[in-house]
Design goal:
The protein has 199 residues and is mainly beta. The protein is 5% helix and 41% strand. The protein has one domain. A hairpin with a 3-residue loop joins strand 9 and strand 10. The protein has an 8-stranded mixed sheet with strand order 1-3-11-5-10-9-8-7. Strands 2-4-12-6 form a 4-stranded parallel sheet, with no helix packed on it. The radius of gyration is 17 Å and the shape is globular. The two termini are 17 Å apart.
Length: 199
């Protein structure tokens, strides 16, 4: 994908993608050109009776919803930049250790949410210990925040904290332009669904 720098702050998504198949594997990779500004991507990948796997590079920011019926949903992440191994909150031995997110509102008051999150591997973050999570936050590392984790559905957000608020309803905010964030839906039925977040 390529987005010219002068189009980085446009008010709509840069790319809208819909891919669908039946009874066959569906594999999609969304990668930025090295010279591209970060793209706002809204994508939906649908499948029935076949595995669905979507991979996005480390420049993707936005929400995601990975769901399936009668199979397992996974969001695959790498937590050690020296390793080639990716793991999911749903995958047995390689389960991801999650922590709670703490932050501050715009008025400076602190708050804590019970949404589990992790900081993704980067050259400056090499482990998932609490002290490295604090240093990752200070270094503005990418964060993965889960809104829902179940065997068949995982929803959340990935990006550099703080997480942007959801868009206001159009009828309440006619004067202000809102730059949408990316969103990826990975949906399958009777077979697995995976979203891989590259680092």
């Amino acid at each position: 994908m390529f987005v010219p720098p002068e189009m980085a702050n446009m008010t709509g998504p840069h790319f809208l993608t819909h891919a669908e198949t039946f009874n066959a594997p569906l594999m999609i990779a969304l990668m930025h050109d090295p010279a591209s500004a970060p793209a706002v991507v809204q994508m939906r990948a649908l499948n029935n009776l076949g595995n669905t796997h979507v991979t996005v590079d480390s420049r993707y920011e936005g929400t995601f919803d990975v769901s399936t019926m009668f199979a397992q949903a996974d969001v695959l992440t790498k937590h050690d930049p020296t390793s080639q191994k990716y793991s999911s909150v749903n995958s047995g031995k390689g389960k991801v250790r999650l922590t709670n997110y703490e932050g501050a509102d715009s008025d400076g008051s602190s708050w804590s949410m019970e949404k589990p999150h992790i900081y993704l591997a980067s050259p400056t973050t090499t482990s998932s210990s609490p002290s490295s999570s604090a240093s990752a936050a200070a270094n503005q590392s990418r964060c993965l925040e889960y809104d829902l984790i179940s065997t068949s559905e995982i929803r959340g957000w990935v990006g550099t904290p703080p997480r942007p608020p959801p868009p206001p309803p159009p009828f309440l905010d006619d004067d202000n332009e809102f730059r949408p964030m990316g969103h990826i839906d990975v949906v399958s039925s009777l077979s697995g669904a995976q979203l891989m977040l590259l680092t």
